[in-house]
Amino acid sequence: MKLRDLTNVPITSFDIIGDIAIVWVPDQYMDKAKDIAQAITKIHKRVRAVYRKNPVEGTYRTRKLELIYGTPGTETITKENGILLKLDVEKVFYSPRMSTDRLNIAKKIKPFEHVLVPFAGVGPYALLIAKMEPTAKVVGIELNPVAVSYFKENIKLNKLSNVTAIEGDASKEMKNWRRWADRIIMPIPMYAEHFLKDIREAVGKKCYIYVYLFVDSKNPLEEGKKKIEQSLGMKFLITDYRKLRSYSKDIDEYVFEVFTSEDFSPKEPLRKAFIEWLKTGKGEKPNIEYKIWTPDQDLWDLKRTSDFVLGIDHYKEGLDYVISKELAKKRGII
Ligand SMILES: C[S@@+](CC[C@H](N)C(=O)[O-])C[C@H]1O[C@@H](n2cnc3c(N)ncnc32)[C@H](O)[C@@H]1O
What is the whole-number distance in angstroms between the Cα of residue 151 and the centre of ligand 1? Predict the structure, then answer.
């Protein structure tokens, strides 16, 4: 049974989030709002409240809701791709329309990858990835304290131990995740260009960044590439891209999979020069910030706080270079 058949009003789309339905009712149909709401509850028997939505606004991307019908209360629990998500539909951003995108991305994650979600909301990307790839380490950062509190609760609800929720401004938090990420997911199309330059610090040796952007529907790839080029400031390749939705007549939302690597980074020549100097001792010691790793230290903590991590006698995957104790003494490193 379709909503249109029940109401004779040309409203076809609405969202079901747990036991809440959210629908956009234009002003001219407000006298029919209750009929529309009742029709929705006929189609979806679980729905206890129907709210009229307003556009998303502000930094937290939340929207004001008006109760049209049913029992008030904006908190609910929904299930998406097998993940339970508790949230308040008015106090946090959440869209069930992105569930297919989340599954597409989660399927790409490889064992043991480090995944950063700088605009995590209540955790729909982070939690699904953590569940589908239990060996991955997932970190979500979110500014809205209410969303973070639900995100933390959702980690427990889904009994996951490989995901961490951090409250903070993603731009400022990046310094704590320097060179850490194998994947970065940036579901913030409105401000993507503003934030792209900030996430550079977190880009690991080889990293895929998922950039959500509003682009001209006629030239999505060209325009996406241009916008990323202007704001990322690193060399990159677009390895995949998909349309997510039509935003307006000429504008669509796309997700671009952007591959970048430390090999493309401006610091890489300095790292290479340092390795060369370690090997040969020729010329001046390159002016690079380095740390020496010992097996009792967390390698990633060191990577987060320096541009080069050196192993002496001990090898571990992820180190920038390893030399013998004898050579380290000769070069005056220890
Ligand atoms: C479009 S929503 C996406 C939320 C979530 N990833 C999802 O798909 O449901 C963008 C999120 O970024 C958060 N946000 C905005 N500015 C932020 C910042 N500077 N640092 C961290 N999070 C931020 C908002 O509060 C919002 O929850």
Answer: 12
Considering the four listed CATH numbers 3.40.50.150, 3.65.10.10, 2.40.110.10, 3.40.50.2300, the one that applies to the domain covering 79-264 is: 3.40.50.150
Helix or strand holding residue 233 (H, E) = none
Nearest CA to ligand 1 atom 19: 169
The Cα 164–Cα 138 span in angstroms is 6
Could you tell me the pTM of the whole model?
A: 0.85
245-303 pLDDT, tens digit per residue, is 999 999 999 999 999 987 777 788 899 999 999 999 998 899 999 999 999 998 878 88
Count how many Cα atoms sit within 13 Å of the Cα of residue 202 in the half-sphere of its side chain. 29
Task: Say how far apart CA 322 and CA 36 lie, in whole Å.
Answer: 68
Q: Which helix (H) or strand (E) holds 195?
A: helix 192-199
Which ligand 1 atom is at minimum distance from the Cα of 190?
1
